[in-house]
Recover the amino acids of this structure.
């Protein structure tokens, strides 16, 4: 990249520059997505984040605005409580079955970038100040 001048980088049409992927909370619905996983700490809680990249909207309720192909969303599973663990187990079960493993690390590694169908819903925090995505089911395509 160092041999490219600023002038040559800027001497392009606006249409030639890639759009930034949109990050949002998908409306409740069914989607074909790619899934990736990342371990992280969220407010000192050990967590696993399931990152979704939209390939196709399969089903939406009447009146819902469909997100654009390429939009991204994610679900965080805090692994230091039974709700985070239970929801993560529910998410991972079809992936483990598909790969023929019971080890979560193996299933996560084998599932990175995999195409799946997810059914989602939205939920709000107790103060009704933030909206989050929940995956209610996952199916390997």
């Amino acid at each position: 990249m160092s041999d490219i001048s600023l002038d040559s980088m800027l001497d392009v049409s606006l249409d030639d520059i890639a759009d930034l992927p949109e990050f949002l909370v998908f409306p409740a619905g069914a989607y074909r997505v790619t899934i990736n996983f990342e371990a992280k700490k969220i407010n000192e809680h050990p967590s696993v984040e399931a990152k979704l990249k939209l390939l196709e909207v399969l089903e939406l309720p009447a009146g819902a605005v469909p997100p654009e192909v390429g939009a991204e969303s994610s679900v965080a599973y805090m692994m230091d409580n039974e709700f985070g663990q239970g929801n993560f187990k529910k998410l991972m079960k079809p992936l483990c079955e598909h790969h023929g493993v019971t080890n979560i690390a193996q299933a996560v590694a084998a599932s990175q970038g995999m195409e799946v169908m997810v059914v989602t819903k939205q939920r709000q925090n107790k103060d009704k100040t933030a909206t989050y995505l929940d995956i209610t089911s996952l199916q390997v395509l």
